[in-house]
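Field reference: "sequence" (input) and "structure" (output). Example, LysE family translocator:
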Amino acid sequence: MTYELLTGLAAFAFASSITPGPNNMMLLASGANFGFRRSIPHMLGIAIGFTLMIVLVGIGLIGLFDAFPLSHAILKFAGVGYLLWLAWKIANAGMPEAGSNARPMNFVQAAAFQWVNPKAWQMALTAITLYAPDRSVWAIGIVAAIFGLINLPSVSTWTVLGQQMQRVLSSPLRLRSFNVVMALLLVASLVPVLYPAAS
């Protein structure tokens, strides 16, 4: 892989990881509701789960979508349905209280979420198509490694931002309003996936 291609890959990984999307909106809400430390498993689940997703897409899953284009559409709309349910859960979340069962997404849940996250699929398919077109193990490994290095610091930024907002969100009304806004932004993050021409 040439230096120019590596630079382009790093820029794509950063731009797609740092911009708003389902993962980042959920981490912003998690940071505001639970703080940075309790959101660490969520962040690691995203970073490691997405890196593994790139590897699996590169070594074979992309071929499934090539052979059965309808499978991609089915997965996309199943993911949208799940994200709408998550948005509803976020909008109706209250103040976390001692002894309550409110908790951030854990590592396994966050890693599994990548498989129903339309933006994650879009990122993985685009990364493999553009930067590992020959689908060699070496090229797929480089794409996965670059995303692994860039994704975690990028998504962590949103958790830190959410945590910093805790001081402002100290009242139930403010936190509820914030969670409703986060839910709406999560839904809005689906627009570029459903209507690529609009992005």
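The longest helix spans residues 36-67.
The chain has nine helices and no strands.
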